[in-house]
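Field: COMPLEX_INPUT
Field: COMPONENT_COUNT = two
Field: RESIDUE_TOTAL = 228
Field: MODE = joint
Values follow.
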Amino acid sequence: KAGVTQTPRYLIKTRGQQVTLSCSPISGHRSVSWYQQTPGQGLQFLFEYFSETQRNKGNFPGRFSGRQFSNSRSEMNVSTLELGDSALYLCASSLRLAGHNEQFFGPGTRLTVL
Amino acid sequence: AQSVTQLGSHVSVSEGALVLLRCNYSSSVPPYLFWYVQYPNQGLQLLLKYTSAATLVKGINGFEAEFKKSETSFHLTKPSAHMSDAAEYFCAVSDQDNFNKFYFGSGTKLNVKP
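Field: COMPLEX_OUTPUT
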């Protein structure tokens, strides 16, 4: 079974631009969660989508948004980029079942904001 | 909200020595608990998970963790460290009633000396 895939793997943007990251979950997984990882703040939860609906949300400003498509693929968008948005963005998919809620992570998208 | 504390941001052991990485969680109800490993420039890989079936959980690569409710701990151990174990390790917890929202610890970087 193919793992979680994320595209692109690397991105360089400038302040004020916007960016869209993509995540394809493991086949059969309908839940996709997004995380931001930085050396200073560690792993921070952004949001989770399940059946095209946002089910959980972390404490990030509205510049961070996401969506999920009917095939469970998910996109994350960051508008008006700031220098502090430079990070590794990880997505994870899961079956979202009690006892089977482990999350499987993709390799991440490394975003650099100049 | 849940929280996870990992004692020691850096741990150094000699090859062949015992590995002990500490994790404490905050919850009055046993949650779901996980250990993940992250190698440089990669996503997180699941090592093992606790879902209340057994207090001693065996994972991949010779790692195991013991759930101790009285100590609210879920420490990760490996009897004999290998050079390939050098990586960053994350403990994570999710609630029984919102089991798809994960809270991650700040991570412990394991260095293995030859």
